[in-house]
Design brief:
The structure is a single chain. With about 220 residues, the chain is mainly beta. It has a single domain, classed as 3 Solenoid (Pectate Lyase C-like), CATH 2.160.20. It is built from 2 helices and 12 strands; from the N terminus they run ββββββββββββαα. The chain has helices at about 190, 200-210, and strands at about 20, 30-35, 35-40, 45-50, 50-60, 65-70, 70-80, 85-90, 90-100, 110-120, 130-140, 155-160. The strands form 2 sheets. Strands 1, 2, 3, 5, 7, 9, 10, 11 and 12 form a 9-stranded parallel beta sheet that branches. Strands 4-6-8 form a 3-stranded parallel beta sheet, with no helix packed on it. About 40% of the residues are buried.
């Protein structure tokens, strides 16, 4: 994540400075900081106002968790499972998701600042009414994902599959979709104003909007 187009990378301590943690319990107001979590399971647990900072999570199971008011800063999630989790109004800064499973995950009304998703499976994921600042998705499966009402201004979708994604009511100023699949997306001309697309996508979008293109 060193390229200028990428969001700022998580600022993490060296591996040798991270403490290994084995506790598999999430509690209200929990503070997880400066740790390495590997092959742990928090599946199905619920907590309010938890903080996770300056930490590395590898193959951690967070599926079906219910986290309200989560604050995550400088965190790398590597091959983690967040399927069917519900995170209510989380705030994430300098966070990277690499090869994570997010099928059915919802984080509506979230705030994302300098967040990157790489190679993630996020079919049916929910991002409703979220705000995105310096965010990038690369090689992600986002089919049927729900971005309704989100502010995606300046976000990048590189080589992603957005087939059937819900983009109604979104703000897409300088949102870059080049190279991604936009088949059957739900979007209108007002939302597309200011978006960045390539030539092939332009023909597809014209068809979606009922425009007849005659060569």
């Amino acid at each position: 994540m060193q390229d200028a187009e990428w969001p700022q990378a998580p600022v993490l301590p060296a591996d040798a400075e991270l403490q290994s943690a084995t506790d598999e319990t999430l509690e209200d107001d929990a503070r997880i900081e400066g740790v390495s979590l590997t092959d742990l399971s928090f599946g199905g647990q619920a907590a309010k106002d938890a903080v996770i900072a300056e930490s590395r999570l590898r193959r951690v199971n967070l599926s079906e968790t219910r986290l309200s008011g989560l604050y995550m800063r400088d965190v790398l999630l590597d091959h983690c499972n967040l399927a069917n989790a519900g995170w209510e109004r989380p705030l994430l800064k300098r966070v990277a998701f690499e090869e994570c499973r997010l099928t059915g995950w919802s984080a509506n009304e979230a705030r994302w600042e300098h967040v990157g998703w790489i190679g993630c499976s996020a079919q049916y994921a929910g991002f409703r009414s979220a705000r995105f600042k310096s965010v990038r998705f690369e090689r992600c499966m986002l089919a049927e994902a729900d971005f309704e009402g989100a502010d995606l201004s300046g976000s990048v979708f590189l080589d992603c599959d957005l087939t059937g994604a819900q983009l109604s009511g979104t703000r897409l100023l300088k949102t870059d979709f080049r190279g991604s699949k936009l088949n059957q997306i739900a979007v209108g001309p007002a939302e597309l104003r200011g978006a960045i697309i390539d030539t092939d996508q332009a023909l597809l979008v014209a068809q979606l909007l009922g425009i007849t293109v005659i060569p």
